[in-house]
Amino acid sequence: MRLSLVPPLALTALVVGTPTSRVPEPPVLAANANTAPAGTLRDGVLTLDLEATRARWHREGGAVPGTLVDAFAEAGKSPLIPGPFIRVPAGTEIHVRVRNALSKRITFFLPTSPSTDDSIMLAPGATGEIRGRATRPGNYIYRATDTTKAAAQLRMDGALGGAIVVDSAGITPRRDRVFMILMVPDSTLVAITDTIDMFSATKGRLSFTINGRSWPNTERITATVGDTARWRVINGSADIHPMHLHGFYYRVDELTGLLVARQGQGQPGRMVVTERLSDFSAMSMTWVPPRPGNWLFHCHFALHLMPPAPDSGDPMPADHGNPALTGMVGLVLGIIVAPRPGTPVAVEAPPARRIRLVAIRDSQFPDSAPSMRFVIEENGRRTSARPTFSPTLYLTRNQPVSIMVVNHLTERTSVHWHGMELTSYYDGVAGFSGSATRLSPVIAPGDSFEARFTPPRAGTFMYHSHMDDVRQQTAGLLGAMIVRDGPPGPRPDDHEIFLKGARDVLVGGKNALELNGSANPDTIVIHAGREARFRFMSLALVNPNATVTLTARPDSSFANLSDTLLVRWRPVAKDGADLPAGQAPRLARQIISMGETYDFAYTPERRGGLRIEVRGGGPDGVLLARVPVKIE
Question: Are 162 and 209 in contact (CB under 8 A)?
């Protein structure tokens, strides 16, 4: 949206009264589904009166005591999280009046373009107004900050943020849904942030919500097989959220935000199962469910789904007796896809291969930082990787396979076949995947579960535990899953590079990131004159903006120095879906976030050496890991 702002003198802040000595009970904060536009739209002008106020928020839907949080209300109505929804056709003049009913100064921001805001400062008890014209269709965010360091770091005070959608003029808007992500700190975290960085704090809590609710209290989305679903997902937070859809691909129709252009995530129309939403970005997406069942759409940043620890002092979510409803919180939507009436039930083909995937634990590692992994058993052969990592599972396109997951651990687990298009029952979210009468079970210690599916496409995928994600995935219950058109198995000049959180990262370990289960990976060998394929996968724990490069410089520097020796590689696939043919080679640099896979092709001209480097996000870009590449 482009707002043609009125001259500065028209932005007014008027004192309308002084606080009284009696403090009324704060109103209750209500979740906003972003389906009912706020304000009055008449003769091409939207008029909206907002009030920034203190409200009591029952963040678990009333299951725990309410907390106080700052939020927006439309004048005369209940405060909402996210704030009142603004939706207008392009060309509309927007007139927003904001009253600051808080006892502190705030600054209100209204977008003037996808990457800039205009603002007005409001003293306690004051009212200000801002006018503009919405000229560019798209998804936007309005927000407010206060003078605390927490608000400066989060670029928002409490829940003072809301969604703006500008539709194309003269066209009836398509049926769609708007989902806004917010990240709200509690009072403990706000106070701590006055002295330390918020993301280094060991006390307090950030609540992650979609349309004001946290899983398992988020809205259940219903659909029917074959229906087209159009969503707008707006990240109103100062953090990264790689958004993953189970079971299906979705099309990214538009991606906008402060960092999108410089970080380069591809052209609109690409098919993905995970898309990284950088801070204050927004995505329009389309997807069509071809199969019925229960599915998830969620952030793949495992720390954003982690329930509070029992000893944290934070109220625990209700114990539903179901691992899907109790074992994760936060940025998760449940999707219920009904079969289309009259559609015959698909008949499952008998498996052509039978594989055992056995979960084991390495006894020499402590419980505070365990090593757990899968081993593969097939036809009397046993395939294993190093501790804290699982071997690659090679499958063949269109070949039915039976995978018997056997749990030799002392704790429950499950397996999600990440990116694979299969029936919901096998999707691996214990207690939710499947249907009302057939839900994926927990795989208890000593028990097993058979998953049967037929991979419909060749590509780069992953398999991983979908229970107690932080503990089990960093321990090693994850691996690459490569589907080929021909015989399964490794091939020369075809290499997998798997980014995972280090086993001991949460207990003071030296390395935040491992590649293929190691802080010092083995040398990769490719051959001059032959095309090599690099398959990158990420289930990192704390590196949502990990940047991989392929460079010819003779040695690595810890600091992020300018690298003029990057080679050029050709993009091949994203999330297992082939990119259109004829992709032009480009500099070998790619941000890869949790839940994403990227394939690149590179043909070296002569013998020598290269290096794959992985650096952290942000301006420092410090070196996290590297892999030597030898060209023979």
Answer: no
3-state SS, residue 355:
strand
pLDDT tens digit string along 479-518? 999 999 999 999 999 999 999 999 988 777 777 899 999 9
Mean pLDDT of the chain: 90
- pLDDT of 181 higher than 90: yes
- Long-range contacts (CB closer than 8 Å, 24 or more residues apart) made by 111-118: 111/1, 111/3, 111/140, 111/141, 111/142, 111/164, 112/1, 112/2, 112/3, 112/5, 113/1, 113/2, 114/1, 114/138, 114/140, 114/256, 114/257, 115/257, 115/258, 115/261, 118/3, 118/5
Give me the sign of the Cα torsion angle 516, 521, 522, 524: positive
Check residue 3 and give its pLDDT.
46
pLDDT tens for residues 142-154? 999 999 999 999 9
Question: Which helix (H) or strand (E) is 610 found in, with range?
Answer: strand 608-615
Q: Is residue 316 pLDDT above 80, yes or no?
A: no
- What is the β-pairing status of strands 524-526 and 577-578? unpaired
CB 249 within 8 A of CB 273: yes
Strands 416-418, 459-464: pairing is antiparallel
pLDDT surpassing 60 at residue 21? no
Please, is 591 exposed, middle or buried when counting C-beta atoms within 10 Å of its C-beta (0-12, 13-18, 19+)? buried
Pairing relationship of beta strands 332-338 and 220-224 according to DSSP bridges = parallel
> Looking at residue 8, what is its pLDDT?
33
**Could you report the per-residue pLDDT of 187-241, keeping only the tens digit for each?**
888 888 877 777 766 677 889 999 999 999 999 999 999 999 999 999 999 999 9
Buried/exposed 335-373: b ≥16 CB within 10 Å, e otherwise? bbbeeeeeeeeeeeeebeeebbbbbbbeeebeeebbbbb
Alpha-carbon gap, residue 196 to 216, rounded angstroms = 31
Q: Give the type of residue at 603.
A: T
Q: What tokens appear for 346 in the block?
A: 């698909």
Could you give the CA distance from residue 114 to residue 523 in angstroms, rounded to a whole number? 43
Cα(508)–Cα(622) distance, rounded to whole angstroms? 18
Question: What is the band of 268 on the pLDDT scale with cuts at 50, 70, 90?
Answer: confident
3-class secondary structure, 308 = coil
State how beta strands 401-407 and 448-453 pair. antiparallel
C-beta neighbour count of 75 within 10 angstroms = 14
Taking the C-alpha atoms of residue 217 and residue 357, their distance in angstroms, rounded to an integer, is 33
Return d(Cα 194, Cα 186) in angstroms, integer.
13
Here the tokens at position 117 are 């805001």
DSSP string, 432-491: TSEETTEEPPPB-TT-EEEEEE---S-EEEEEE--SSHHHHHHHT-EEEEEEESSS-S--
Count Cβ atoms within 10 A of the Cβ of residue 22 and give its class: 0-12 exposed, 13-18 middle, 19 or more buried: exposed
- Where residue 174 falls (left for φ over 0; alpha for ψ -120 to 50; beta otherwise) is beta
